[in-house]
Amino acid sequence: MSDRPAVEGHSSPLYAIILGFIFPLSLGALLSDWRYSFTYEIQWLNFADWLVAGSLVGGGLALAWTLVANTVRGRWRHRPSSLAALLLVIFFVIQFINALTHSKDAYATMPAGLILSIIATLLALAAAWLGLRSSTKGVAQ
């Protein structure tokens, strides 16, 4: 057995996968909304709907994982972990509002759906970056 301690963060590759896939899904929704704003072809809006739903599932799983891991390990005072959890909460709320916006009639989703997708994509990127950064803190040399 090694006398090196385990990673103090979220040390699971599964967490990295869950956290890592919310950004591509959000970016896909943003690009679909952007394309829909030019063409008004309903299929682009359908793509965005499904991508928003997928990012909500992933964001909910990542948020639950972060809340449990920070509580169990007592890492709420660790700034990157707390900030990542806060960004995931904000991402989840914005993406939920985005899902409600996308449930409107086709032409009623613009421009609010596009704006919410931009905000959600930026939040997903920041949350993933901070979450993955905080999960590797504390590795023994």
Automatic annotation (TrEMBL):
Domain of life: Bacteria
Pfam family, any one: DUF2231
UniProt KW Ligase keyword: no
Keyword terms, alphabetized: Membrane, Transmembrane, Transmembrane helix
TM annotation in the entry: 12-30, 50-69, 81-100, 112-132
Residue ranges annotated for the DUF2231 domain, each copy included: 13-134
Keyword Transmembrane recorded: yes
Protein's UniProt name: DUF2231 domain-containing protein
Organism: Sphingomonas edaphi
